[in-house]
Input
Amino acid sequence: MDKTRILLAEDELSLAHIVRESLEDQNFDVTLCANGEQALQKYKAGKPDILVLDVMMPKVDGFEVAKKIRETDKTTPIIFLTARSQPKDVVAGFESGANDYLKKPFSVEELIVRIKVLLSDNRLLNPTQRVKPPNDSYQIGNITFIPFKNTLQQGVSNWQLTNRESDILNLLCKNQHQMISRKTLLDNIWGDDSFFNARSLDVFISKLRGYLKADPNVQIITVRGQGYKLVW
Output
């Protein structure tokens, strides 16, 4: 079965990569564009199944991209991502041809659900696609980790994790204060312990350490040659 093709246009690179990775983890085929002009070029080169467009982009904004597409294409779904949340902005978004409008900050899970709804035959979420309610959360020092939402919270601060970051931290939490081997992490999350996947794991561990340093008592300890241990 062919993957659903998503054209994602977002000029905030850190957010763009988080969203793209999360969508790819859900088996979507994502084409990432950094501005509206590039989005139009990529759209013409190969029509996607759905477009996810930031509104405030350089060169050509999201509203103009949608208007140009709607001149010849009335059916491909378009979702706007934007920090502009005034009623007049929402109205302008729908008037330009959008099917949905998601205000920043947003959860990637909500974006995924909205994509699935727009791509369904009856604009309803298939029962087999429903998002499961959260099962648990972990208190890591003074940081709260909610696996279902892929979020870390500390007071008023909130960090959105990618699916892969969340999966790694979830395994570490389930084995808190115990060493979990690199092979176990790689086999569970990537499916094998190849060299390239091992290098990716190192990068994700480094990113998680960056988030968790918000509480100096929390550490991901490297057990040399073996694995990692989450302690606080």
About this structure: Residues 131-135 have pLDDT under 50 and may be disordered. The chain has eight helices and twelve strands. The chain has two domains: 5-129, 138-231.
